[in-house]
C-alpha cells in the first residue's frame, strides 16, 4: 500500500465515486452465493456476469461441502500469495497450478472437442513465454548441440478435407536431452534454443532438425511442487515437442507430439497425453538420407501430419 | 526460474525422486474431474484429499458450466498473477478478493454459526497485518489526534451464561476519520495508530477512548478494484471498529462493531454486516462525565457487550 492513497486528489476522487448501493445483503451461510451473485447483477458485460455467477456458486458450494475452516482458508490464501510471488518473466506458477489441477487440459479440450479427422489439442504449458525465432525449413532448432539423439521431424498441415494449408506457421518448442527448457538455463544455452517458427511450403509441408526431447519434472521448487509432494504425486511430464499451428484461414491448434515409449505417458503430471498424439520416433540407419538432411547416421525420424480446422 | 534448477545436485535429486505413477489418465472432458481426483488418491492426509477432491470437482464443473474459453482462462491467470504481485507486507489482495467474493464471510459464518446468545462474528479483513500495542484500560488508541469525533467505547466480555471472562484480551483496530488505516498512511501517523490490545478486568469489563471511524473504500488501485469497477460494484465498507476477543478459556471471536447510521450498512463491499453488530454511537453532553474519561464535551459513547463461547 502506498501513501498516494491519501493524496488529496485520490481522496477527492474517492468522495466523487458514483456509489450505487448493492441490494440489501445481510449475510447468511444459506443464502451466501445468492447474495454475492446479486451484488454482480449490474455487471455491464453479460458474459462476465455469467462467469462470476457460476464462479461464486461453485466457490461457495466448495466451502460448504468441505465445511472449510478459517485456518484452512488462511492456508489457501498463503498458498495463492506464494504462487503469485513465484511468478516472474520466466516462470508462470499459476499456469502450472492450473495444469496440475487438470483445468488447463479441460479448457483446451472444451475449446477443441475431439473430431475424427482433426488433430487433437493439448495444453500450451508454462514455457511458451518467449517468441520462437523464425527459421528456414530444414534448419535445426538445437543451437546448443550439447548432446541428445539427433532427430528429423517432418509433417504436413492439411484441413479436414486433406487440402494443404500453404504457408501455415508451425511454432515448435521443447526441452533438451536433460529435460530443461532454454529459459531454465539462462546463460548456459543460446537464447531461444530448441524453439523455432517455421513456415510450411505450398504443399503444407514442414521439416526441421532437433534432438529427441527427454521426459522432465515441472519445476518443484515453488508452491505447486509443495502441493505435489503433499499429495504423493510425481512431477514428471512424458517427453514431447510442443507444436502450435496457425494460419489466417484456420483455427489455431495447440498440441504436443509425444515420444512413444517415454516414461509417464500414462501418468503425465498435467494430464496432457492423448493417445492420438503419441508417435514413434523411429531409428533410421541410412547414411545417404542422413547426409541429405545434414544429420549424423543413425538418426531418429518422426512424421507428424497435422489436420486443422478451417475457419467459418 | 533460477539457474539453480540446473545445479548438478538438484539434477541428481530430480533423478532420484521416487516416482509413483498415477493411475492411467487419458483425458476426456466428461471424466476430467474424476481423472484429476484419482491423481490425488494417495494423499496421506485424508482431510487434504477431501478438500482437493471437492475443489477439483467444483473447479471443473465451473469451467464446464460456462464453457470457459482459452482466452477467458488466460485472463483469469493474468488476474491471479497480478493479485499475487499486489500482495506485500502491508497489503493482502487475495484476502480482499476473498472478501469481495463473500468467501471470507462464508468461512467465518460456517466456523461460528449464529447462536442466540453469542455475539455474531464477521470477517477479519486485510488490515490486521500488524500486532496491536498493549494499552491500559481507558487509554486512547488515537495517538494521531488529527481530528474526528471523540468517542468512548465500553463493553464487557461474558460467556453464554453471563459469567464474566476475566482478563480476556480485546484487540481493536479501526480506520480514522478520513477512512484510512495506519498502514495506509506510513510516515503520516504514529505507527500502530488506532490499534490497541486491552485486557479486560476481573469483571470482564473493558473501555477505551478513540474517534468515530468513517466508512471507507477498500483499496481500489489493484486487480480487486478493477473487478469492482468492471462489475459496477462500489468499494465501500460501512463504518466499523474491528474487535477480536481471545482468552485461554474461550473460542476466539472475530467481529466488528458497526456505527449505526453509517452509509453502506446495506451494501457493505465485503458482505460483513450483521444486524446484531450495528450499535448506536450516542452523543453524550455531560461535562463531568467527559472530564472523568479525559474526553472533550460532548462526546459519543457506544457500549458493546460481547458474549463468547467457552471451550469444551
Shape of chain A: globular
Instruction: Give the mean pLDDT of chain A.
Output: 90
CATH architecture of the largest domain in chain A: Sandwich
For the largest interface, the chains and their residue counts are: A-B, 110 and 111 residues
Main sheet properties of chain A: 5 strands, mixed
Domain unit count of chain A: 2
CATH class categorisation of the largest domain in chain A: Mainly Beta
Low-confidence stretches of chain A: 1-25
Write the CATH homologous superfamily of the largest domain in chain A.
Aromatic compound dioxygenase
H/E element order of chain A: HHHHHHEEEEEHEEEEEHEE
Number of strands of chain A: 12
Structural class of the helix and strand makeup of chain A?
A: alpha/beta
| CATH fold node name of the largest domain in chain A | Protocatechuate 3,4-Dioxygenase, subunit A
State the helical fraction of chain A. Answer: 25-40%
The N- to C-terminal Cα distance of chain A equals 48 Å
The helix count of chain A comes to 8
**Percent strand of chain A:** 15-25%
Whole-angstrom Rg of chain A: 24 Å
Oligomer: homodimer
